[in-house]
Amino acid sequence: MTLGCLDKPGCDETHLNGPTDIAFGPQHDIFVSDGYGNNRVVHFDSNGRFIKAWGELGVERGQFSLPHCIGVDSQGHVYVGGRNNVRVQVFDADGNFLDEWRNLIVPWGICVTPADEIWMVGSTPMRWEDDQDQLGGPPKDQIFMKFNPDGKVLQLWTVPKGVDGREKPGECNMAHGLAVDSKGNLYVGDINGKRAQKFIRLANEA
Q1: Residue 206 pLDDT more than 60?
Q2: What are the beta bridge partners of residue 61?
Q3: What is the pTM of this model?
Q4: What was the pLDDT predicted at 117?
Q5: Of the candidates 75, 77, 57, 67, which has an alpha carbon nearest to the alpha carbon of residue 32?
Q6: Same domain, 85 and 8
Q7: Strands (E), the chain
Q8: Is the peptide bond before 149 cis (omega within 30 degrees of 0)?
């Protein structure tokens, strides 16, 4: 299956423009954060047929500025991490706004577990600099957060941002990908570090 058209950016039912992430709903339908250029979410069915799209550039509810990651829980709620707006917005599968979590994390990656724990990796909120066109590049740190579906923070910790080319074990450098296994261990991929790391859950951790 191919979604979009190779080397042909656009903003309609058959084209994307710099998609950043993909997630799958309870009925195997497909949600794409079409973040670089289009600032929207695109919903396809399990066969790749276009259903609808929502969002545009802006700061209001239902608008986006670089939607960078997306996840869907068992109830079909869609979580969209907006990097430049420092927030997570929650929608139903039809794109209706439900909630937003503001100024907690600059979201770079998301993983929703079968138990509907919403894990995110990114960086702590920071100021825009004059020479930036994307917030948090480079970030001052790397942060992990676990939320429940209502947006309550269940866990938080940071790791140092590694120095380019000299990253040490346990450091991350532009972490973009996140996955969680059945034991609660985290797998993190970072761009500048050019690697994936496994963070093991402590046995005495609640």
Answers
A1: no
A2: none
A3: 0.94
A4: 97
A5: 67
A6: yes
A7: 21-24, 30-34, 40-44, 50-54, 67-72, 78-82, 87-91, 97-102, 106-112, 118-123, 142-147, 153-159, 175-180, 186-190, 195-199
A8: no
Cβ atoms 168, 162 nearer than 8 A: yes
Give me the amino acid identity at 122.
G
Give dist(CA 66, CA 85) in Å, integer. Answer: 8
CA–CA separation, 196 and 5 (whole Å): 29
> Does residue 56 share a domain with residue 20?
yes
Q: How many angstroms separate the CA atoms of 176 and 131, rounded?
A: 22
Q: How far apart are CA 172 and CA 10, in angstroms?
A: 33
Summarised one tens digit per residue, pLDDT across range 13-70 is: 999 999 999 999 999 999 999 989 899 999 999 999 999 999 999 999 999 999 999 9
User: By residue range, what is the domain housing residue 204?
Assistant: 115-144+156-206
For 44, residues 6+ apart whose C-beta sits below 8 A from its C-beta are 3, 29, 30, 31, 32, 50, 51
> Does residue 204 belong to any structural domain of this protein?
yes
Nearest to 157 by CA among 188, 181, 131: 188
Q: CA 67 to CA 20: how far, in whole Å?
A: 7
Determine the Cα–Cα distance for residues 173 and 14; give it in Å rounded to an integer: 34
Are residues 45 and 66 located together in one domain of the fold?
Answer: yes
The answer to whether the beta carbons of residues 114 and 71 sit under 8 Å apart is: no
